[in-house]
Each structure stands twice: as structure tokens, then as C-alpha cells.
Amino acid sequence: MVNALEPLFPALRSLEPLGLPAASLSGWFAYANAQQAQRLAGHFQHELALLAQEGAAQVDHAYLRSDAFRANVVQAVRAAEVAESDGKLRLIARSLTGCLLTFPAPQVDKFQTMRVLEGLSEREFGVLLAVVGALDPLDPYADILPAGARLPGWSRDEAGATLLGLGQQGLLMGANGGEAWRLSPLARQLVTLARLNAPWLAGNSDGLELF
């Protein structure tokens, strides 16, 4: 049997100086689409290089040595297996890299967020970004989006159906008696873990678009 995690081993070995014992990788195994895992590995290496430049001081060294990190690597490979685009693979890789970091309260449930990410379609993620971009940049979690609001790039029906889907996945909550949408705590976790900051929302993340 082919170990679907093998394409990620070079990137994972680079984390040894941060606390991940390279020898422990011999016990890491997962069944998944090896071709998708190889594509994910390329994005993961890219995100690790960015992390080395920007955020190494935030790395959770104890987490790297934990079973929780291995579980999230396996979860990422499984999510990659059903990824519908290269942009979705990059989002998975970016979120997996975010798992290495410590964040201020409220604490992110990393495994829960990676599991939800697996089921997020390309359109759903695009609409979620559009919602975040349409809300108050100072505190988007306190702001609301009218249910009938137009979102750039989608028709009213497309956006409406997708907003309902995001609500079913727990990323949006109804507000004002169902007349508006509000970002949920789970959406906050996704935005935090994938580090979807202002440059990403503006489409300027080192020159690459997610979708």
C-alpha cells in the first residue's frame, strides 16, 4: 500500500528544528489519493517558506510533537482528496500551516476547522470571503449582512443558495429574525486558522489568488 503522507515528508522534516522529531514520521500513514497529496505537498512547502519569513516566533513547538498535529496532517490529506481546484488545495495547505501557530483567545479548535474545510466548496469559500469583505473591517463578527444583499461575482440566486449552504455548515448564523446573516464563531476559526487577513481579502496574497 502506498502511504499518501510520503509526499509531505520533505516539508514535515523541515519542521524538525521547530520541534517535530523527524524519526517519528516512520509511524505516520494514511490511505488517500497520492496524486492529490503530491499537489498539496507543493502548496504546503510554499506556505512553510512564508511562515519561516513571517511567523516562526508564533510556532507551537509542543503541538508539533503531539498526536493532534499528526491527526491534522492526515485530515488535510483526506480533504485534498476531494479538493475541486488548485486553489482549494492551497487553502488546505495554508490552514494546515496555521495549525502550527499559537493564536490569542478564543482558542481555535484546529481539527474541527480542518474537518469543516474539507466540505467547503469553491463557491462557498468565495462567497464567505465576499461576506467578510462586505462587513465592517474593524469588527466583521459584530456586523450583519442583509439576506438579500448582492455579492460581486454571483447572481442573487447563486449567492442566496450558497449563503444557505454556509448556514447549514455552521459558518453563518441568521440574524434579525432571518433577515440578515452574521459570521459564526466557526467562521472566525476558519478565518483565523487560514490567516485570511486584509491582503488575502484584497486578492494580493504574494501575487496568487486562491480561486
Name the features.
single chain; mainly alpha; 10 helices; disordered C terminus
Low-confidence runs? 204-211
Query: What separation lies between the terminal Cα atoms?
Result: 33 Å
| Strand proportion | under 5%
The H/E string reads HHHHHHHEHEEHH
Radius of gyration: 18 Å
**Major sheet size, sense and barrel closure:** 3 strands, antiparallel
Classify the secondary structure makeup into a structural class: mainly alpha
Summarize the structure.
50% of the residues lie in helices and 5% in strands.
Description:
This protein is mainly alpha-helical. Helices cover 50% and strands 5% of the residues. It contains ten helices and three strands. A three-stranded antiparallel beta sheet has the order 1-3-2. Helix 2 crosses helix 4 and helix 4 (67-81) packs parallel to helix 6 (110-118). It is globular, with a radius of gyration of 18 Å. The two termini are 33 Å apart. The relative contact order is 0.12. Residues 204-211 have low confidence and may be disordered.
